Amino acid sequence: MIILGTISYINMKNVYKVFKQAISYIFSDKINLLFASVPILLGLLIYYFAFYSTYDVVMNWLNSFLSSLVQSDGFWGIFITYFVKTILFVLSFFFINWTFVLVVTTLASPFNDLISERVEKTIKGLPQEQLDKSLKRIIKRLGFTIINESKKMLFIIVLTFIALVLGYIPILAPFSLLITFFLVSIEFVDYAWSRHSLPFGSCVGNLTQYSFHYLVAGALYFLFINIPVFNLLVPSIATAHFTTFYIKKTNQIEI
């Protein structure tokens, strides 16, 4: 028991140390910070225009519908209009909170790939690629990366649904959480796996060998994903975290 407790303490400490290093890699490197910010700005623009376009359509339809029933400037017309606006804003808040991170993560995929690469080069002491070359590579691979990321997100959504179903079976509920935490880890360590062309068996082996770290770190970022505002930075920080852990462990570099 003492040995297991010591191992668990060391692993928990490593999760914390890698998390601090990941934040440092993002905020101490201006280009990494730029790559982390662009997907957030793109996501905000998309949701801004989508929300107000939907809002205009709904309100125009509502005003047209109410005018045939009651006076739009009368008590009931004003009451119903404000009631619908309130419902629309509440539903929009929950919808955006649930989907925004998924959209930003998809938009961030080409940028996260470069963040992962820059973090690896920093760890190994290799020269960094110039920004213009990085941007050209993003544009060149944009279509492929987003399609590939969308497939990965679809796979994760399916497994998330399976985890959700297992959550309603009392005896299997713990497995639901385990699957979810590992999925979060896989989503972000996959950038390093893919860049090193790891076959499926090697990915499973790496996941199994360091299962405690992937489980605990996955749980940590699952928690962060559900914290509004901070969750916008999760894709970049998580990418840096799991890249740092994978590179340091495979190259036997002290964490």
Describe this structure in words.
By secondary structure, the chain is mainly alpha-helical. The chain has one domain (2-37, 108-250). Helices cover 85% and strands 0% of the residues. The protein is built from eight helices and no strands. The protein has helices at 2-27, 30-67, 75-124, 131-167, 173-195, 200-209, 211-225, 234-250. The protein starts with a helix and ends in a 5-residue tail after the last helix.
Q: How is this fold's topology laid out?
A:
Layout (H helix, E strand, L loop, with lengths): L1 H26 L2 H38 L7 H50 L6 H37 L5 H23 L4 H10 L1 H15 L8 H17 L5
Helix pairs in contact: 1-7, 1-8, 2-3, 3-4, 3-8, 4-5, 5-7, 5-8
Entry keywords:
globular; 85% helix; 255 residues; 8 helices; mainly alpha
